């Protein structure tokens, strides 16, 4: 019997007035997969992330995480089931330090009891230590340790982007939605990020969905790529299949 997917989306639609931003999307993601979500500007990618993280509610359709139906629930419920995300536009707490930003991210942890304790200021010393250790480890992995006590507003752009990912990872997610993590990075920073994400993919039991316009990044990291166009699913395949698809070239790559 096939394994139950970590994420299962059926007939998912979202309309804004007359605009059908997401139109009857079906998507199944297994544990440990790295899925790319691509498509031209306005194709509906960010709307899909908003739906998958409970930021907005669907007009129609089902979203199940770990077999549990969540459509209609809010962002807290999605986070509590292990869904974390980053945003296209960086959303850090600018006047908290780098370390505090990561701890703040832990308020969205998928560990419900831990989250309640955090919010109610009832953390046991061991739990607090565990969180601080996790935060320190993540900052180390992403090369941000030396900035731990600086205000996040003082970080370089590339470091702020990395901190966004650290903050999402700090929630102990099962499913991480990355919205253009390499946007605005210089080529060296972009390369470094791809290597880091590749390393996380190899070493941690984590499932990713990635929106990214840089096709090299998508092709290198993703096991499967879904192509959206005008809210509809246009194609799904391996990076190689996507590269060879005439329909994708036509819609997305400008028929090169
Ligand atoms: P990009 O690559 O430019 O970020 P995208 O693929 O992420 O684009 P979305 O941002 O999801 O696309 O937008 C899909 C469509 O839905 C667009 O036509 C957009 O204008 C519309 N849209 C998105 N959010 C809203 C909203 N809150 N209100 C009205 N229309 C919206």
TrEMBL record:
<dbReference type="InterPro" id="IPR027417">
    <property type="entry name" value="P-loop_NTPase"/>
</dbReference>
<dbReference type="Pfam" id="PF12399">
    <property type="entry name" value="BCA_ABC_TP_C"/>
</dbReference>
<dbReference type="InterPro" id="IPR051120">
    <property type="entry name" value="ABC_AA/LPS_Transport"/>
</dbReference>
<keyword id="KW-0547">Nucleotide-binding</keyword>
<feature type="domain" description="ABC transporter">
    <location>
        <begin position="7"/>
        <end position="255"/>
    </location>
</feature>
<dbReference type="InterPro" id="IPR032823">
    <property type="entry name" value="BCA_ABC_TP_C"/>
</dbReference>
<keyword id="KW-0067">ATP-binding</keyword>
<dbReference type="Pfam" id="PF00005">
    <property type="entry name" value="ABC_tran"/>
</dbReference>
<dbReference type="GO" id="GO:0005524">
    <property type="term" value="F:ATP binding"/>
</dbReference>
<dbReference type="InterPro" id="IPR003439">
    <property type="entry name" value="ABC_transporter-like_ATP-bd"/>
</dbReference>
<dbReference type="InterPro" id="IPR017871">
    <property type="entry name" value="ABC_transporter-like_CS"/>
</dbReference>
<protein>
    <submittedName>
        <fullName>ABC transporter ATP-binding protein</fullName>
    </submittedName>
</protein>
<keyword id="KW-0813">Transport</keyword>
<dbReference type="InterPro" id="IPR003593">
    <property type="entry name" value="AAA+_ATPase"/>
</dbReference>
């Amino acid at each position: 019997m096939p394994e139950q997917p970590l994420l299962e989306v059926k007939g998912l639609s979202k309309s804004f007035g007359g605009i059908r931003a997401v139109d009857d999307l079906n998507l199944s993601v297994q544990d440990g997969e790295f899925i790319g979500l691509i498509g031209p500007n306005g194709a509906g990618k960010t709307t899909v992330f908003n739906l998958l993280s409970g930021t907005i509610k669907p007009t129609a359709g089902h979203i199940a995480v770990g077999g549990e139906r969540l459509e209609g629930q809010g962002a807290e419920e999605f986070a509590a089931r292990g869904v974390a995300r980053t945003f296209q536009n960086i959303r850090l707490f600018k006047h908290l330090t780098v370390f505090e930003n990561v701890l703040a991210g832990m308020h969205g942890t998928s560990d419900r009891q831990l989250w309640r304790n955090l919010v109610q200021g009832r953390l046991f010393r061991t739990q607090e230590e565990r969180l601080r250790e996790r935060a320190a480890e993540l900052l180390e992995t992403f090369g941000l340790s030396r900035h731990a006590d600086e205000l996040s507003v003082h970080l370089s752009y590339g470091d702020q982007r990395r901190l966004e990912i650290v903050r999402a990872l700090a929630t102990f997610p099962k499913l991480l939605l990355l919205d253009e993590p390499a946007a605005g990075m210089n080529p060296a920073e972009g390369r470094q990020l791809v290597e880091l994400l590749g390393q996380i993919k190899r070493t941690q039991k984590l499932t990713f969905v990635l929106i990214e316009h840089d096709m090299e990044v998508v092709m290198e990291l993703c096991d499967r790529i879904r192509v959206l166009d005008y809210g509809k699913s246009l194609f799904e395949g391996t990076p190689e299949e996507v590269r060879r698809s005439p329909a994708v070239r036509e819609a997305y790559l400008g028929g090169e």
